[in-house]
Amino acid sequence: MDDKSQLRARDFWASLGLIALSGFFIWQTTSIPLQATRVAGVSSVQFYDSAAVVPYFIFGALLILSLILLANSIVSGDAARALSGAGIGLDCAEIWRIGTIAAAMAAYILGLVPRVDFIIASGLLITALIWGYSTGQAGRMGLAAGAVVLAGSYALIRHLPQSEWNKPHDDDWVALAIWILLTTWALTRPDRNRLTRAMPLIAVIAPLILVTAMAFGFRQNVPNRGGLIFSQIERTYYLDLRPLWSQ
Amino acid sequence: MDYFVAQLAGFWGAFTGLVLDPVTYLYMLSAMILGIVFGALPGLTATLAVTILTGFFGNKVPIDYALIALLGAYVGAIYGGSYPSILLNIPGTAASAATAMDGHPLARQGRGGEALGLTTTASLIGTLVGTAALLVFVWLLLAISSNIASPEKALLALFGILLSGTLMSEDLAIKGWISGLIGLAMAMVGLDPLLSEPRYTFDWSYLLSGFQVVPVLMGAFAVPQIIEGLRTARPGEMLALTGRILPHGRTILRHLPTITRSGVIGTGVGALPGVGEDVAGWVSYGVGKSVGRDGANYGKGSVEGLLCSETANNACIGGALIPLLVLGIPGSPPAAALLGALKINNVIPGPTIDPAIIMRVVAIMVLASITMFAVGLLTARLFVRILKVPPVAFLPVVMVLTTIGSFSVGGGINDLYLMLGVGAVATLMNAMKYPIAPLVIGVILGGLFDETFRRSMLLSDGDPTIFLTRPMAALFLVLNVALILSQVPALQRLLTRRGRVLS
């Protein structure tokens, strides 16, 4: 089966999704006033300058284009293949690769970044992604993503409310322990290579430079200022280093 | 004549101010090196370089310095893409895809050094041609643009989205349009620009101010790139960089007509809204193959073919800045990221833009092209070494960069959620061959389209003929309709048959 057939089969599902999406948003748009009304002597908008007119145009056009895409998929005869995994070109190895990366990214953004020290969270992510995806082994990918998901889930579940995000907690220590374990595991494996040996250096230096440059160079807000390592850096900077050159 | 003298005097003032400031070199050199590295590493792109730097410098340093960093990285990344094209036969960026056609055969013939030297020189001349066009035409167009009112702006924004969707789509044009419409739909979120009516906020206060540009850019361009690149990459066979890099003056002079033609084509393609450097490279290559003296040898290691694509993709940068500065409509995906930086600095492109900013942009472009030439020729052998670094070593760092860049722009953790959501949508769209650039251009131009369309209708008391009675608006309307009709299969078949009959 050629790529075009797979694309047309995928278009079948994509068009159905887009039809549902445009239908939902057209329904949502009905809550925005469209017709002119007069309340307490004050005229509201006319239909042509209502906040709903452009969204109706956009979602209407999206609906029409989705129907054309659906018709094209059916006419080409490839929609019939859309019900089988092979028809839409599902590749289990690729799904596993993308799925594990997505899980690691989601755990990093949703669980770790708001709650755990940025250097520890990023170091863990960098270690997991470099080690997990450099050889293409499915087991490694699962273990690497699992490490990030474990640390992220722990932080998310234990310290869910926003009021707890910036306080130093045990989640920093848990993430650090997982990071050290993963690094040790990677470095003691017999199949380690130059990239694996360079990995701990990249994982420590990159987030350290980035977060310090952002916080003290550009004077910007950085995630989790109360984190285990960053709070110590900030303390040292303001109490020990800054006075040296401000004098 | 007075006009050109005045332009040159204005440019000279801005240029001397730029080169006499020592801080300039700090930003320019670091951005240029970063840009070349991003361009040279397959898996990273020029758009990503400008996007990441927007997150870093966007609103954190004065706009004058931020522009140096962003334009320096833009020029460097488009040029840097030629390294792997020539030595690995893998384009570093989409803009350099056509460069590989003749660059790699030249390297196979042991002329890799010569090919790299020629691309460096062609990129310098291309950037300067595009910048000269920017200097001359931006003022003429700005004068005209003061007559461009809401109806014209609305139709031009729509044309930009449609054109970008048509030309950037690898599969069906309709997919590019759907991508643009999704972008437009995303721009509708938040308070509407005329009546402050909340739209699609789902009672979440963060959404009242709409989707922020930087997290959308990061999510759309960085996240799919990271997911796509994190795999076992078999290192390609890298050819040795042999021979002299500094090109011979005679070779350049002999090919000057080709370089000039390609520079003009690149600038023209760049000036089209939403069309990027890759299209410029291929169009110039195609024209060169048809009209060039050496056309028969294109693809076999033709110097002329190499110069065609490499001059055009760099000339495209200056061209892409023309609609950006005149109308606020980006001429290419990296220009869309640049517009994001202007927006977060409250610089509004168009007739009211501060002329000093335009002159500064021109001066930065000239300095960037000279810096690129010097850095390219002096450090080419050094940069070649980074081609051996596997994407899996640097993409995780890019993920951390985008995270902190998105976070620090202002919206905090909510911006990261937005980045992740847009990244998921963009990855899905990539898998189904929907182009991402029209989505971003839709997000950026959505507000402009909404506001100007409704204002036009308000001014005409709901009479839609306002889009026909104004000559410029009618012209843009015809362009929009023609673009849509040109993609209807039945009409395409009819036109092809007519063409055959006529020929």
UniProtKB/TrEMBL annotation, chain A:
Domain of life of the native organism: Bacteria
Keywords assigned by UniProt, alphabetized: Membrane, Transmembrane, Transmembrane helix
Zinc-finger in keyword set: no
TM region positions: 12-34, 54-75, 95-112, 118-134, 141-161, 173-188, 200-218
Entry protein name: Tripartite tricarboxylate transporter TctB family protein
From TrEMBL, chain B:
Residue span, DUF112 domain: 26-441
Superkingdom of source: Bacteria
A matching Pfam family: TctA
Sequence intervals crossing the membrane: 25-53, 65-83, 122-142, 176-195, 207-227, 357-380, 392-414, 434-453, 474-495
Keyword Membrane found: yes
Alphabetized InterPro entries for the sequence: DUF112_TM
Keywords tagged on the record: Membrane, Transmembrane, Transmembrane helix
Alphabetized PANTHER family for the sequence: TRICARBOXYLIC TRANSPORT PROTEIN (PTHR35342)
Name of the protein: Tripartite tricarboxylate transporter permease
Species in which this protein is naturally found: Thermohalobaculum xanthum
